[in-house]
Amino acid sequence: MAKITYVEANGTKHEVEAENGSTVMENAIRNAVPGIVAECGGACTCATCHVYVDPEWISVTGGPSMMEEDMLDFAFDVNDRSRLSCQIKVSDELDGLVVHVPEEQA
């Protein structure tokens, strides 16, 4: 299990326990984290689970795949820390992960 902290655009934090093998998006939905819509349910066919990975976690989460980059073209206010949370798999290495939810989703 890993602890993940979701930070809303207004600064409100939500810390959740996440099972290994699940995704950052699945845990946001299970815990009703505001701002994570996940319209496609994790199929990487929308951009409504967009998050910004905290800078100190970029090297651990890695960058987006080519398919994910294509979907990020539809996300709001993308930057070099943007990821789709449905594409980040939870593992012990992500214990303490911090992601920021954008002001709005695509």
Strand composition percent: 15-25%
- Tally of alpha and pi helices: 3
Strand order, main sheet: write it out.
Answer: 2-1-5-3-4
Uncertain stretches: none
Question: Which quaternary structure do these chains form?
Answer: single chain
Series of H and E elements? EEHEHHEE
- Give the termini distance in whole angstroms: 30 Å
**Largest pleated sheet:** 5 strands, mixed
Give the helix proportion (percent range): 10-25%
Describe the protein:
It contains three helices and five strands; from the N terminus they run E-E-H-E-H-H-E-E. The chain has helices spanning 24-30, 58-61, 66-72; strands at residues 2-7, 13-18, 50-53, 82-84, 97-100. The model has no long low-confidence stretch (mean pLDDT 96). The N and C termini lie far apart (30 Å). The longest helix has 7 residues, at 24-30. It is an alpha+beta fold and 106 residues long. Strands 2-1-5-3-4 form a five-stranded mixed beta sheet.
Keywords, please?
five-stranded mixed beta sheet, metal-binding, single chain, alpha+beta
What is shown here, in short?
Helix content is 17%, strand content 22%. It has three helices and five strands.
List the helices and strands and how they pair.
Blueprint (H helix, E strand, L loop, with lengths): L1 E6 L5 E6 L5 H7 L19 E4 L4 H4 L4 H7 L9 E3 L12 E4 L6
Parallel strand pairs: 1-5
Antiparallel strand pairs: 1-2, 3-4, 3-5
